[in-house]
Write a structure and sequence with these properties.
heterodimer; A: D-Maltodextrin-Binding Protein, domain 2; D-Maltodextrin-Binding Protein, domain 2; 2 domains; five-stranded mixed β-sheet; 13 helices; 17 strands; B: mainly alpha; MetI-like fold; four-stranded antiparallel β-sheet; 9 helices; 4 strands; flat
């Protein structure tokens, strides 16, 4: 009897020890960053890591989004998602799958958003995320063209009469922790004495603001606009708040994809650029059918229509995995940049952000939105 | 024919491994190897991942400028991170020290009241204890924060001859200014841990042998004298270790300060991480801070405990 248990113990210890030795001696090979090719074929044409194939196989686009920022990423009471960033998810789904509704939305916190992208849980991130160098690099993301040029701004009660940040001496400025908001505030108000109050979340700041503990609220302009748009009517509604004109940081927002799959990057990037180019060319979701018959070669090339050339008719072949008429699918689904902007955050929407004269205008109007040619 | 464990049954080398003593030692060696392998693997994993990511895998971040301001502190945003952490340590200590003092005062008072002859006092004390004990401390903190928000706005502050000023931004008493976040956190912690200490006090008094109470009464001591000279000193010895626990708990609960915008060391740590200090190292620093606080409190009060312990014959 004794001998059998001893034998068993010995056997167990031997196996365990040899497992340890194997683990200790094996190569510590670091997880390869990017190139998510755990499934799907490697046949993609240009440096692909197979995300396009995965999405097509799955017949759904997994999109990482926000669910609590009105105008950008917001989940309604019925459970549907709407917003500026949501529209870009729909645009990519329309381009790749032909159907803007074939999207699986995943609401993420700021801490989760980049890891979810890196791990492959989502195919693209469209969650009012600022494009900064460290997120492109170590963060494992690759940012496509900026869709919204945002920046940090200051919001004050209209009744206070404050018209500029320089008028906030000795004020208590409230904000939420966790992003670069605090640093930008410190930089801007370096020579103006003030008391910063850092809370955990927006609802707490709102309570403090209503109670009069804060003289001002600082955050990204888009966030402030969303908060202002849903300010309770018994507190004076949106008119009770004023967002000061000055923008004191650069927060270029845009979708991001995983590092290492340049084909997928091209697709998402050119979907964004398609919306911008469409606005420049005057193509809208309303007139797209007429535009398909247009004689203008630039419009025809953009819409993937045959163009008369020296050697006969030619159709643009982009070569990144979607057909030349993807632009048509995109514009039909969500419209051009101007339509997306106006629908979600424009002057006619609750947020009421006017893009005239700002960075969010087209380059032809003095803004920064500029698309390379579709040819 | 069973053989006693430990005796070799055969003279061969193989038999060595069947010896229970050998197996025990072997088992321990394997366990140590397992722990070391695990530690090395975790270390290696961490190194590899931080190399891939921020490239900041050292302690250099402590010298970098903080980049933001801290309310109610003499602090410039250009000062290094380690100064910011020091402000946090001071804030945590301030809240913890006053919190501990107040909690003890509340706890002893309420604990004694729970044993009062007066029905009203007893019931009131019981109500207080049962409510505060059974609610999560974060909710108590949020509650005091919300309640203090109902104080008048600073433009309409309640003033008493320039000596007292009450608003929902600060309280001024005879020249001392207390900011509301500090008051909210400290008051909440004092109330919450006060209820726990009250229970400890009540329990310790009741744990004093009944004979002591009877003898004290027989000697003609009044209730207050009995409490002061016989019961409390003995109860104190019984109640001190669990009370030390409450002190430690209170110190750690100051980490919830961010709920009321108080800049304790944990809140500052999170804000530093948001401003791109490396997360793992920052949290390690925070853990060391709390470790030092806890060990200090334990040490001081355990010394006190040892001096007061009854020497048994």
């Amino acid at each position: 009897m004794i001998r059998r248990t001893q034998l068993r113990t010995l056997a167990f210890l031997t196996v365990f020890a040899s497992l340890l030795v194997t683990a200790a001696c094996s190569d510590d090979d670091d997880s390869s960053n990017g190139g998510g090719d755990d499934s799907g074929s490697e046949e993609s044409s240009s440096g692909g890591g197979g995300v396009l194939d995965e999405v097509v196989d799955r017949d759904t686009l997994n999109c990482g989004v926000n669910n609590s920022v009105p105008g950008f990423g917001f989940q309604t009471e019925e459970g549907t998602y709407e917003g500026f960033d949501i529209d870009y998810c729909k645009a990519v789904a329309a381009a790749v799958l032909g159907d803007a509704e074939k999207v699986e939305y995943l609401a993420l916190t700021p801490e989760q958003r980049l890891p979810a992208l890196e791990s492959g849980e989502i195919d693209m991130l469209s969650r009012n995320t600022t494009w900064v160098s460290s997120r492109d690099g170590a963060g494992g993301g690759a940012f496509v063209t900026t869709t919204f040029y945002d920046g940090q701004a200051m919001m004050v009660p209209t009744a206070s009469g404050v018209t500029s940040i320089d008028g906030l001496a000795d004020a208590t400025v409230c904000l939420t922790a966790g992003t670069t908001t605090e640093q930008n505030l410190a930089d801007r108000m370096a020579d103006i004495p003030h008391t910063p109050q850092t809370f955990e979340e927006n609802p707490q700041v709102q309570e403090a603001f209503l109670a009069g503990q804060c003289d001002a609220w600082t955050s990204d302009q888009s966030q402030l606009a969303g908060i202002r748009s849903s300010w309770p009517a018994d507190q004076g509604g949106p008119e009770a708040l004023t967002i000061l004109d000055e923008i004191f940081s650069k927060e270029p927002l845009g979708p991001a994809v995983r590092d290492g799959d340049s084909e997928w990057y091209d697709i998402v990037n050119w979907v964004v650029l398609a919306t911008i180019e469409a606005e420049e060319l005057g193509v809208t979701s309303e007139n797209i059918d007429e535009m398909l018959e247009s004689e203008d070669p630039e419009v025809r090339r953009f819409l993937g229509q045959p163009v008369e050339g020296e050697d006969g008719e030619a159709v643009v072949e982009h070569g990144f995995g979607v057909g030349p008429e993807f632009t048509v699918d995109v514009i039909r689904a969500v419209g051009n940049y101007g339509e997306i902007y106006d629908r979600n955050v424009g002057p006619g929407s609750p947020l009421g952000l006017d893009r005239t004269g700002t960075a969010n205008a087209l380059w032809t109007d003095g803004g920064l939105h500029y698309s390379p040619p579709f040819r | 024919m069973s053989t006693p464990a430990g005796e070799r049954t055969r003279g061969s080398l193989a038999a060595v491994f069947f010896d229970v003593r050998v197996l025990r030692v072997l088992g321990q060696v394997v366990a140590i190897l397992a722990l070391v392998t695990l530690a090395l693997y975790l270390q290696d994993n961490y190194q590899a991942n931080t190399r891939d990511r921020s490239g900041q895998s050292g302690w250099g971040f402590l010298d970098e400028p903080t980049g933001f301001n801290i309310a109610y502190a003499d602090f410039r945003s250009t000062q290094p991170v380690r100064d910011a952490i020091w402000v946090g340590v001071r804030n945590t200590a301030a809240s913890a020290a006053v919190g501990i003092a107040l909690a003890t005062a509340i706890g002893v008072t309420v604990g004694v009241l729970r044993l009062s002859h007066s029905w009203v006092a007893r019931k009131a004390a019981t109500l207080y204890v049962e409510v505060l004990r059974n609610v999560p401390v974060l909710l108590v903190i949020l509650f005091t924060g919300a309640w203090l928000q109902t104080l008048p706005r600073s433009t309409e502050a309640y003033e008493l001859g320039g000596l007292i000023e009450i608003s929902n931004r600060e309280l001024v008493f005879f020249g001392t200014t207390l900011n509301i976040p500090y008051v909210a956190l400290t008051a909440a912690l004092a109330l919450y841990h006060g209820s726990h200490i009250a229970e400890i006090v009540r329990g310790s008094i009741q744990a004093v042998p009944l004979g002591q109470t009877e003898a004290a009464t027989a000697l003609g001591l009044s209730d207050l004298q009995r409490l002061r000279f016989v019961l409390l000193p003995q109860a104190f010895r019984i109640g001190l270790p669990p009370t030390i626990n409450q002190f430690l708990s209170l110190t750690k609960n100051t980490s919830l300060g961010i709920a009321v915008a108080y800049s304790d060391v944990s809140s500052l740590g999170f804000r530093l991480i948001g401003a791109r200090s490396p997360a793992l190292q920052t949290i390690i620093v925070l853990m060391i801070v709390y470790l030092v606080f806890s060990l200090t409190i334990s040490l001081v009060f355990n010394l006190l405990n040892r001096r007061l312990q009854l020497v048994e014959r």
